[in-house]
Structures are given as C-alpha cells and as structure tokens.
Amino acid sequence: MVVAGGLQAAAPPTSSSSSSSSSSAAAATTSASKVPPTRAAAQPPLIPTSVVDAPTQRLWAASLTAAIQAYKLYSFFSPDASLSHALLVDLALVLALSRLRIPRLDFIDAKWAIIGALLAAFDWLALGGWHTLLSFAGLGAVTSWIAAVWDDAFSRPMGLSEHRVRISDLIRPSSHILGEHTIHILPHSTASISSRAPTCHCIGVGKSRVEIPIFFNNTDPTFLQYSVTPFGSENAYPTLYNVTISKGSLTTVESARDMLQGGVKQAIQDGHWDEVEAEVMGSGSVVQRQGQHVPARAGQRSRKAKDSNMHPRQSSQQKFDLSVSAIGRVRLERVMDKSRMDARIAPGEVIIVQCPTTSFAPSLDGQEAGSSPLALVKNNAEDVLSALLGRRHGSTPGAGFRSFDWALPQHEKVPIFARLDRTGSYSWELDHVRDACGNEVSMSSIGKAQFSKEIQVHERAHATIVGCSRERPLQLLRNGTAKEVLLRAANVETDAKWTASVRFEPEDDSTDAWTKNVTIGNDGLGRIQAAKPGNYILEQIDGSYCSGEVGSPWSCPVIEVPPPTADISFSTIEDVCAGSVGVNAMAVLSGSPPFRLQYEIKRSGQPAFRQERVIERTREEFEFRPSTEGAVQYRFIGLSDANYRGLPLDGPTFEQVVHPLASASFVKPTSSSASRREDSKIIMRSCEGNRAKAEVQLEGTGPFDLTYALRTANSGSSVGSSSSHQAAAIQHTVKGITRQRHTLDIELPPAINAHGGSMTISLVSIRDGKNCERSLTTSDVNVEIRRVHPTAAFVVPGSKAAQRTAVLQGESLILEGQEAKLPLRLEGEGPWKVEYRREGDAVPVTTTLHSPEAEIVVDRPGVFQLVSVHDAYCQGSVVQQSSRWNVEVRRRPVVAFDAASAASVGGQGRSSKQQQLSSLIRPPVCRGVPDSANLLLLSGQAPVQVTYEHEAPAASSSSSPTGRRKRETFSTAQNITSLHLSTSVPGWHRYRLVEVGDSSYALGAISRSDSDDLVLEQLVHPLPSARFIDQDHHSSEQQHRRGGRSGPNKRKSFCLGDTLSGRDMARAAPIVQLSGSPPFDLEFELRGIQMHNVALDLNEAESIGEAGDKPFRLDSTGTWVYRIVSLVDGNGCSSTPSPGEDSSSSGSSSASSPPSLSINVAETANLASVGARDDYCVGERIQYVLQGTAPWTVVYSFEGKVSTATNLKTSTSFSRIAEKPGVLEIKSVAHASADADADSVGGGGGSCRKEITNPATESGMRKTIHALPRVRIMDGGHSYQDVRQGTLATILFSLSGEPPFDFTYQHLEATDRHSDPKVLETRTVVGVNAREYRLQTREQGTWRVTWLKDRWCSVSIDGETGDVKRGSGRSVKAKKMAVRGDVKGTIGKGEGVEAGGAFEIEME
C-alpha cells in the first residue's frame, strides 16, 4: 500500500473484524500523513522538466554512464591504467548524477554511496584486485592459470626481429615432443560363416552378386580364400577364389550378449552347436537364424577368455561382406592377417541358387523358372490369385540330404483365365515369385514389361454423312469442279484406324456405279469427292479392332445446276427535232440472282468502253443516251449469277447513229483561279478590272447560240432603267460558238463596278446546228465585287485630332536589349506583306502580318519608314502622313575609379600575367594599415548600384598572380563615393568594377572592360616574420621544394657539457628563417638557468659564431629556449611577437608556430644486463635496464642483422623474446627524443650515444640463444603395433639437441581403448649421450614423453621451457637530472639576408 509522500505504509494485520481492519487502515493513513515530504518533493530537478523532460534526462544520464564505463574498460587495457584515476572518474559521475536530481533517479545519499562503492569495487577488481581476492581465498593456482591464459591469448612481446611474437608459438610442445606408441597384445584369431545367417541365396536378373557376411575374431584379416562347388554332380571339383581385404571394408559388430535367450540346451542336444562356433559367438556378436534360439551357455564359454585389458578385441568382432557371383556351395577355406598368420576356420557353407523368374507368355499364360516347388502371386483389377506350381522331386532341402539336384532350376507353365464381358481396359501384373529356399523375387523391383499384361476393349464407331441429305441435296455445277462429301465418325480412338465403305449410284442407269473405301482421320472426319450427279450411300465402317455402326443420314443426293441465260431486245429513243438520241435495252434473265450483266459501248474512232450492272431481279431495262453525235455500237458480252461466274455472251449487238440534244453548263472553277472561292461564286476585287469571266461547257452539234441573263442584287434599281425593288434580268445571246468550251466575257454594271455588290449569271437556252432550241435549267454563277483598297499606316497618338495634311511621327523610348513594338493599322484582306526600312539601312525588311491591327517588333534604335503594303490579292498604298516612327535607347549608368587616387597607370611591379591588364596603381601600404579610394558616378539615374570584384592574393603568398575572388554590391546617390580597400592579406589586390545598375537598368555587366578607370590595383606589403627551424626541417623544406617528401620536425638535443661553438657544431646551430623585404633588424634572446647577453653585428662578422668573447657551454640538463624579440624589414613594416608566443615547450616551429625554439640537454645514455646469464633458450626473455633520460634508442645485431629499437619511453627496461637460435650483440645505446635531430651532436641515430665496440668483452652485451631439444617416438605420429602373446616389442626414441639428454616417459593404458587412460608407470632416463634410445617391452599400453632436457634447455608437455641453470638478475634504476638557465642576445641590422631565406646563428 503506497501513501502520499512516496513512503510505503505497513499492511494491517489480518483480522476477521472489519472494524479492526478499518481502524488499522485509518491509523496507517494517519501515520503516513505525518511523514514529512521527501527531498524529491521539496527540491525540483536541477534542469526543469519544462526545458528537458524527465525521460530525456534519464536517457542522457544512462548514455553518459555507459560512455564513462566504456572509457574505463578501454583504459584498463593500457599499461598506464591507474586505480586512483578510475575512482576519481566514478566519484565525479556519482556526484553529478546526485546533484541533477533527475526524477526517478533522485536517490537518497545512502543509495548513492552504495552505487559509488559498487563502482569502486569494480575498478579494484578490474585493475588486479581479483588476483588478491583469489589469493586470500586459497586459489593462487587458479590465479596463475588465468594470468598465463591471458598472457598467452593477448600478449605479443617484441622479438629480436623487431616483430611481435607469441611465446606459446615458439615453445609449443607439439613441435618438440612428437608421437605416441601403442602396443596391443592379440589373442588367437578365428573366422567363420555364421550359421545363423541365411544359408541359401540366389542370383538372377537385377541381382548379379550375393553379399555373404564373414565374421572375424581377434584378427585384422588381409587375405581370404573361399571355394564354390557347382550343383548336379557329387564328384564336382570346387573353384577357389582369393580376396584381398582392405581396412575400410571391415565393420565392427558390438556386443549383443543380452540377446542370448533360452533354448540353448535343445540346440546343443540336437548337435547344432559346436565349440568353435560357441567361441566365435562368445565374443559378443550374435546372428540368429529364422526360427532358431541362441543357446545361453554360449555366453558362459566366452568367460574362458583372458582379462579384457589384455585382450580388448574380445568385446567385439569384425564383419566382412564377401561378394560372390557364382552359383553353387560356398565354403571358407583360408584367412590370413597382415602378419601372414592363419586364422582358425569354423565349418559351414552357404548355398547360392538361381533366383526364380516369371513372365507372361504370348497368350494370357504365366511361365516360371526356379528351384521347385514354386509359388506365383498374380494381381489384376478384380482378384488376387496364388498358386503352387511344380512337383516335389525325390531330393529336397530337408534334413540329412546329400544330393543337391533340387537346387537346379526347373521350368513350369500355368494358364490364366479371364472373362472380358465389359468394355474398358484390363490389366494383369505378376507381383512376386518364391522358390523352395524361400528366395522371393518381387517383379516390381525388376520393372520389365513381360511381368504385366494389358487388354483394351474398344467401342464401335458411329458414322454419318454431314451437310448433305435428301432434303438438302448437294449442287454440282456443269463442267465445274467436284464437290466434297463429308463423313463424320463418333467414338473414334486415336490409336485405331477406321475405314468407311461408300457406294455411288448415278442418276441414269449407266455403268458408272462404284464402291470406294474412305479412311477416317484422327479427328473423326472422312472426305470423298463427288464429280457426277447421283446418290452417294455410306454402307459400313470398319476399324482396326472391330466394325462400326452407320447412322442417319447415310445417303447424299448430288444434282447438277444449269447455267444462267439472258434474252435481250433493243428499241430506239426518237426526238421530234433531233431524231435518234439513244436506245432502250430490255433484258430477261434466268438463273439464281444476283446477276451481273456486262456490256460495252463503242463509238466510231474510239476504243470500246466496258461496264457492268448488278441485277437483283430477272427483268431489267437499260437506257443509253450518248452525249456526242455519231455512230454507236452496243454489245452485251458476259453474264454471272450466284452459281456461275463470267459466262460469255455472244450479243446481242445494236448499232445506231445518234444526234444528241444540245446542253450547256458552267464549268466548276479550278484551284488555280485566284479570284474563285466557291463552285458557283466568283469574287472580284479592286485590282481585277471591270469585266467578269465565266467558262461554259457545251454539248451537242454546233455551232451553238447561247442565251444567258444577268441579275443584280441592288434593291434600289436594276441594271436597266427599271426602278422596281426586284432587279430585272437582262438577257444576252452569244452566237456562233463552235467549240465545246466557251468563256463568257461580261462587263460589270457601272454602279457595281464603282461601289461593289453582287450579280447572278444564269444560262437561259441553247440552239444547236440543226436549229433545235432547248431551254436550260443548269446551276447559276454568283459574282461578288469587292472594291476595298489595301492601305498601311502607323498608329500615332493624337493623329485623329491633327490635320490630315500634317506629317505625324511616332516615338518610343526603350532600354538596351529591349524590343520596341510599332503599332500598325491595315486595310484589305489578310494576310498582309508590309515592307519597311530603317534610315541608314540599304535593304528594306519585309514582314507578314495577319491582323488588321498588328505590330512591327524592332530591336534597334532609329527612324523606321513604311515603304509598301500588299494584301492577299492586291498591291496597296502607304499613308505617308503616318509612315514614320522614331525609336530611341536610354543610356546606361557609367562609373569609374578616380584617377587622382592612383599613383600611376600601368602594371609596374606586377607579374607578367598581371601586366597584360591596364589598371590604376594605388600606392602600397603595409598589412593592416587602413586605406580607401574614390569612385566617380559619370552618368545614370540615382540611386545607382555598383558591383565590384575584389581579387585578393593567397593568404601565404605575396607574389601569387591569382587568389581569392569576392564580389560585393553597394548603392550610392552621390557623384563621388569612397571605397574602403582591404589590407588584411599581403600581396597585390585588384579591384575591378564588373556590374552597374540604376533606377531604369537592372544590375548588369559593364562592357568597357578595356578602360583604365575600371580596374584599381594596390600592393599590400606583408609583415616580416622570423622563426627557428632545425637543419632537418630546413633540408626537408629544400627537398620539398625540389619535389621530395619531408619528415616531421624534431627538437634539437645536446649532451651535458657540449658547447655552441666550433666548426664541428655548425650543423647543430639554430637556423632563423626570415620573410619580408631586406634589410632586416632582428632581436632575439636565449634563456636557461643563467642570463647571457651577447651583441652581434651581421655586417662585420664573418659568421655569427665568431662574434662572441668566450665559448658558451651547456652546463646543466633540461630545456633551453631561443626566442625572437622583434623584427623590422626594409619596407618599414615591423613585427613584434606577443608575450603569449614565448613558449619553451614548442619544438621546431611551423608557419603558425611562435618565434621560439627549444633544445634539450641530457646526460649520456647507458644500459646493463639483468642477471649474469649469457646462454638463453628459445622462448625466454632477454632483459636490460636503461640508464639516462627517456626515450632511448638501442642498436643491436642478431645473426649478422643489425636492428634498431626505438621509442623506448614507457619503461626503463629493454627486453626482447629469443624467437630463434643465434648470437645477440648490443652495439650502442642513445637518447632518442622525438624532437631531436637524427644527425645531432651526439652522433647518428640519437643523442648522447654510448658505443659498444667489443660486446664480447663487456659484461652482458653478448648473449647466445640455443634451440629447444626435440624427441620423436617411432615415426613422430601416434603409431600402433599389434603383437601376439609372448612377442617382444621395441619402442624407438629419436633425440635432437646437444647431449647429454634426460627425459621422462609414461606408460598408460591404451589410449584408443580408454577415454580416460590410467597412468601405469612413470620413469626418467638420464645421461643419454646418443641420438637414439630403444625400449623393449611385452606389455600392452601407450608410451609417451612428458619432459625432455639437453645440455642447455628443457621442454615439458605442459608447455614449460627454460634454461637448465637459473640465474638471478639485478635492477638498475635510471637517474634523471633537471638544469635551468637563461641566455639573452641581440642581432643587429643586416643587409645580406634575402626575403624568405634562412641564416645560421651560433652562440659563443
């Protein structure tokens, strides 16, 4: 139960009274309410939950804790791991988490103390406390084992080849103690064919061999001989077979004594158990015959064997499967092992007969072969039949038989009866057959066809004639192709062939009757060609297996269809005036419609013209009216109906001379006519004159007189003098027209010609050459007259109010790059072609416009003049008062630098690339000095925006022609503006005006790029600088300038007592690198324990080192510092380092390093051997103690190869693992400071070096490493040897190393027979001076070596190695010294130092 305040109240005691419970609960509540609020309720979190919610704070706290613990685990693997550091980190973590007061993590102080204690305990255990804890618990051996495993798994000490090695790989026992030897004492061996295995086998189809199990006791057989005696003759000679047995063909049969059951007494009384077989089976393998019990006494006889440790093979026996392919009696004759020793052969034989077989005869009978009597089992869809076949012979495989005639194969035959009273598929299958020996053969395993029989009962086919019957006979054309009579048969199977018999009966009683056979296809269809009329009858249908049935319809009548005919008669068409004008033809047809009647019309002097007409009835009338006069011939040439196609007709033919009636009609206008728009309409425009033309097509006999009428559409008056509202038609007659096509030339009426309008032309009548006149009702032609004149003019504002005679000119003001649109007003029919010219241009411009209110778009300034206009049909005129338009361009703003701000114009003092650009040159300034230039506004409308490009040099180079580019934009309304120049980066600065814009023009590029006043340049001098560099760094910079690579800077190192003077110290003198313009004024100082004041003048002394009064000696160890005080160059630019740059801890400075240089003064290095031993074994650690100041460099040689050990700064001990035999010699030891020069004062490869010229004479400087001894038992592997009882075995130990040898061997139980063999004997052999040692024994077991020692080294099977003699080492502690001093000096003004160069300073 939880109450307010976060405290838990005690539960009330259990009581049956509810009042007691209520009072207890009330008491608990009252008690809880008196509890004061907790710290969480009193103090909120340090970070409010409104800023960071509580779950996020807990996530951050958990992440911080996990990160700190991971860092601690990582630091525990470092050699510098400290318990105090880990405790401080945990203490800070606990204090921080407790002060944050995170919700649900705001524990009381006691809980935080427990958490801190747990973290401290974890740190103590991780940093070695577990070792102490286990030692107190009495588990020191466990501690040592864990430490050894840890070192072996993760420790990789340094070897003499300067590579990491694993000690366990060097002293692995498996590479020095090789091999084990196991001896087995074998009992007598036996071999037998087990009497409980099947004694009768068979060989036949699918089974060419028989596997007979052979059992071996106490032997590893390699050779076996067996015999096979054939059946049928008592005196037959057996055939011997030899078999070589491989190790892989033997299998081990485990003990099965629990299978020995009752019934053995009866077996022994019956004489079926002999002692040899009992001994064989007593080894544990039991194979039981069917229906035979295993005697229990067989297990008792096996107890006569010796102890299982001496005869381990009696607990199991081996089995070999003998493969036999011959038929007869098989007996085992001889067995030998690999020692050519014979095994005892137990009596017994196996009989192999021919396997029984069976198959179906050609009829439904079964025939069998095999050892009689035989049993056959047959299966089909209805029943299962079993039968015993054959008879028993006088000799059977019963007890006491001597003859084996019964084993010879016998042949039997049995009939099988079946009733096929239903249709379908019947199948029989022989399942299996069994002979007298019980050999059963399954027919399904062989899978041959003669073991199954199948019969198919087929249905009868049902055949009929399709598509033809007595009600629908088949029609045959006269002299046409034969028709097809289709036969269809149902229930046709694909594997059966069916043939139908068809008989033909002709219509007459002629002798053309016949009968034919038609083959029915797999689709059940048959076809026969009917070439003559008559009756085709389907008589019968027969198949491959049975006959079929014939259904209705079974007959097909074929009749002959007659061809169509035509009866045609002609009658002329007469005119009262003209005479014969055509002809009528009446055609009466017979046949099957539709008909197609072909005819041709031929005029004199012209080729014949053929036509065809489709007729759906039997009577049709043709009317022919030729349009031209002359002789015409009509002839019908062909006829077709629904059955016949293209039957020729020989006439009839009709000839006549026709005189056609005259007619006339307007010719439809062609697309090439410019004035025509529609078929019956003529459009005339102002440029086409006052006459209209219409073309007429005439037919008949000329000459012709043509009468036409004109009618206008004006409502006021007609063409004549009539004043009625309906315009009167005026007729005109054209006489003597001789051609078939005539053009009417019609003059327009004056009113329509002047103002436009419409007019209709109608053809009234025509008279031909025979004076026959005919009225015409052809289509009229409408004429539309349009009198609008094309014109063009500019739309000038105010042109309506101006005088018509005044010349008006339009004006446009545009910006550069913009287009001006000149408005036009056009009259006429579009599209219009307008031609205009710009003043000053020789060639006018033509443009096509489609709107009467269009615009001309121009992109150049000037005065534009309209030249001409042409609409779609006519040439027009230009309105001269509005034919001009003036286009002007507003000027862009112009800015430039004030030339007064520049010292000169040109490229003096710049690079060759910069000199190609003309610019204003501003006077140079030093870096950091403020400067500005004036900018002039020459034209433009304020406010003006200006963009300039500032090209600054690279930050580290004052002579680079290109550098960083930056664009800036500013606005100004003044004519003169001040532009601030950048002086923060030394070098040439280039300011170029690139864009300008005002209120009209947007910001755009300035095109006057070749002008001098657009570019301003100024040189900013860099501040001089000085820095110290060592010779290695100086040479590496020179190498870098030549394209090489430079190494890291190193601090100069000197030995105690060295002087900074003399030619031998010139290479070690500091070098100062200066940058700027010479000459320079340089001031520097040297600080140590003492202060040395030295004044030098570069202009007088040959070298700086010769200017002093006395040599300067480094008389104390420690760090000495050079520092630059001030520097002034030839440009007057000064540079003074800040106090913060005086750092003595800086080494060789880089470009960003302060102007100071530190040097180290150290004492001479030395080392001493730990212990007095000079002989070591492979895998041991050779250790030395280093003296002097870390880090050190040790040079040594091993087997002629010189190696250098560097970076020895974490410990005063120098150790290496002896990884191979050889001689180690120490050559030198020196200090190897990371800042020291590789070729410093002390010598090559380190400072304060101690050379060891003769390591053999100095104590501990020469060590000899010896190889570990080695022993090999027999061939070095796990060898086995089997010997019979009483035979002496020899074990060979081969030794390598330096004698004398001592070794310890163990005699164990056989390791291949025992999972945990017991040690039977342990002996140590000492003082062996030979390389071989032989041990003879008659005992069984395994021998192995556990420890070996030669003259120098020893090795054991548990991995321990070492030198024979153990020596004691000594510890030498290095001594460190610290010396301080101060030296000051000054360099005067010098003239000979180049900018960016370096010079040397030697202190004396």
Automatic annotation (TrEMBL):
<feature type="region of interest" description="Disordered">
    <location>
        <begin position="1133"/>
        <end position="1157"/>
    </location>
</feature>
<feature type="compositionally biased region" description="Basic and acidic residues">
    <location>
        <begin position="1029"/>
        <end position="1040"/>
    </location>
</feature>
<feature type="domain" description="Nucleoporin POM152 Ig-like">
    <location>
        <begin position="812"/>
        <end position="883"/>
    </location>
</feature>
<feature type="region of interest" description="Disordered">
    <location>
        <begin position="950"/>
        <end position="971"/>
    </location>
</feature>
<dbReference type="InterPro" id="IPR037701">
    <property type="entry name" value="Pom152"/>
</dbReference>
<protein>
    <recommendedName>
        <fullName>Nucleoporin Pom152</fullName>
    </recommendedName>
</protein>
<dbReference type="InterPro" id="IPR056542">
    <property type="entry name" value="Ig-like_POM152_1st"/>
</dbReference>
<feature type="region of interest" description="Disordered">
    <location>
        <begin position="1026"/>
        <end position="1057"/>
    </location>
</feature>
<feature type="compositionally biased region" description="Low complexity">
    <location>
        <begin position="1134"/>
        <end position="1157"/>
    </location>
</feature>
<dbReference type="Pfam" id="PF24519">
    <property type="entry name" value="Ig-like_Pom152_1"/>
</dbReference>
<dbReference type="Pfam" id="PF24097">
    <property type="entry name" value="TMD_POM152"/>
</dbReference>
<feature type="domain" description="Nucleoporin POM152 first Ig-like">
    <location>
        <begin position="199"/>
        <end position="352"/>
    </location>
</feature>
<dbReference type="Pfam" id="PF23664">
    <property type="entry name" value="Ig_Pom152"/>
</dbReference>
<dbReference type="GO" id="GO:0006999">
    <property type="term" value="P:nuclear pore organization"/>
</dbReference>
<dbReference type="InterPro" id="IPR056543">
    <property type="entry name" value="Ig-like_POM152_9th"/>
</dbReference>
<feature type="domain" description="Nucleoporin POM152 Ig-like">
    <location>
        <begin position="461"/>
        <end position="556"/>
    </location>
</feature>
<feature type="compositionally biased region" description="Low complexity">
    <location>
        <begin position="9"/>
        <end position="33"/>
    </location>
</feature>
<feature type="region of interest" description="Disordered">
    <location>
        <begin position="1"/>
        <end position="41"/>
    </location>
</feature>
<feature type="region of interest" description="Disordered">
    <location>
        <begin position="285"/>
        <end position="319"/>
    </location>
</feature>
<dbReference type="Pfam" id="PF24527">
    <property type="entry name" value="Ig-like_Pom152_9"/>
</dbReference>
<dbReference type="InterPro" id="IPR056541">
    <property type="entry name" value="Ig-like_POM152"/>
</dbReference>
<feature type="domain" description="Nucleoporin POM152 N-terminal transmembrane">
    <location>
        <begin position="53"/>
        <end position="130"/>
    </location>
</feature>
<feature type="domain" description="Nucleoporin POM152 ninth Ig-like">
    <location>
        <begin position="1169"/>
        <end position="1232"/>
    </location>
</feature>
<dbReference type="GO" id="GO:0070762">
    <property type="term" value="C:nuclear pore transmembrane ring"/>
</dbReference>
<feature type="compositionally biased region" description="Basic residues">
    <location>
        <begin position="1041"/>
        <end position="1053"/>
    </location>
</feature>
<dbReference type="InterPro" id="IPR056540">
    <property type="entry name" value="TMD_POM152"/>
</dbReference>
<dbReference type="GO" id="GO:0017056">
    <property type="term" value="F:structural constituent of nuclear pore"/>
</dbReference>
<feature type="domain" description="Nucleoporin POM152 immunoglobulin-like">
    <location>
        <begin position="561"/>
        <end position="663"/>
    </location>
</feature>
<dbReference type="GO" id="GO:0006606">
    <property type="term" value="P:protein import into nucleus"/>
</dbReference>
<dbReference type="InterPro" id="IPR056544">
    <property type="entry name" value="Ig_POM152"/>
</dbReference>
<dbReference type="Pfam" id="PF24312">
    <property type="entry name" value="Ig-like_POM152"/>
</dbReference>
